[in-house]
Specification:
Helix content is 30%, strand content 17%. By secondary structure, it is α/β, with parallel strands linked by helices. It has a single domain, classed as Rossmann fold, CATH 3.40.50. It has a 7-stranded mixed beta sheet with strand order 3-2-1-4-5-7-6, sandwiched between helices. Strand 4, helix 3 and strand 5 form a beta-alpha-beta unit. Keywords: Metal-binding, Methyltransferase, S-adenosyl-L-methionine, Transferase, tRNA processing, Zinc, Zinc-finger. This is tRNA:m(4)X modification enzyme TRM13. tRNA methylase which 2'-O-methylates cytidine(4) in tRNA(Pro) and tRNA(Gly)(GCC), and adenosine(4) in tRNA(His). Its EC number is 2.1.1.225.
Length: 269
């Protein structure tokens, strides 16, 4: 049920924002079984002017795209690592007018690799017929983000954060989703104290609620850096809580639409 709610909300935001057009390639990065693409095909009423392109580095069983074999919507799957993917070298994309990039299962740095892949496609394809007009990606697993891959480095550096700070914050983001600290500290030897440190001042030990707030703020900073990256490359961008926290603690998505001319946003926090 959780996945149905998430897919339904993402598709609702895509439709409301005008991302569901004819003559469009819908690219699902980190597609997994392709459930999101399947529901896009159903939402588009199996439009034969569209292409569903599913990208995943692993081979999947029980793929939803198998259910579209008799559909009028063309569906293709590419097995590749996103870090090696160059959209401009996929010939079939040039038969369509626009690209809309989607993601629901992209963990940590995979999101940044996908965003950079889309932006690079626009840079190479400037002046050609096909453009990456829309992006809709759920953001999750910030503890798996990597400084080298992260798209918001300029924003972080402008705010005075270093690569080492980023690594610390990456670990802190897990506080928002991993539940109470107590259960993870039961196995710490008694001589190290309840939090693994000798005589740690109690006022420096955050409560579970405080840990959750700090974790969510760290995630928000990472997401905002990604927003700044997209806006600096010509996108109008929003961060949306697309489901309730009760449905999933990973409940934020980025929605971006390309605008012309490109503009460089003011960086602030």
């Amino acid at each position: 049920m959780k996945h149905l709610l998430q897919n339904s909300s993402l598709l609702g935001h895509a439709e409301k924002s005008g991302l569901l057009h004819q003559n469009t390639v819908f690219i699902e990065f980190g597609a997994g079984r392709g459930q999101l693409s399947y529901y896009i095909a159903k939402t588009m009423q199996e439009d034969n002017s569209c292409l569903l392109l599913l990208i995943d580095r692993a081979s999947q069983r029980h793929k939803f795209d198998n259910k579209l074999k008799d559909s009028s919507t063309l569906c293709k799957r590419i097995r590749a690592d996103i870090s090696d993917l160059c959209l401009e070298f996929i010939p079939i994309l040039h038969q369509y007018k626009r690209i809309v990039s989607l993601g629901k299962h992209l963990c940590g740095s995979a999101t940044d690799l996908a965003l950079r892949c889309v932006v690079n496609c626009n840079e190479v394809e400037e002046g050609r017929s096909v453009t990456a007009d829309g992006i809709l990606m759920a953001l999750c697993c910030h503890h798996r983000c990597d400084w080298n891959s992260y798209t918001g480095k300029d924003f972080m550096l402008a705010q005075g954060f270093t690569a080492d700070d980023f690594d610390v914050m990456s670990g802190i983001t897990s506080w928002a989703t991993c539940g109470p600290a107590y259960s993870r500290e039961m196995s710490i030897p008694e001589e190290y104290g309840s939090h693994g440190h000798v005589q740690r001042p109690t006022h420096l030990i955050p409560t579970d609620d405080e840990r959750k707030i700090i974790g969510r703020k760290s995630k928000a900073i990472f997401n905002y850096g990604r927003q700044m990256y997209l806006e600096s490359h010509g996108y109008k961008c929003r961060l949306i809580e697309y489901v309730t926290e009760e449905t999933s603690p990973e409940n934020v998505c980025v929605l971006a639409q390309r605008v012309i001319p490109h503009s460089t946003p003011q960086v602030s926090l």
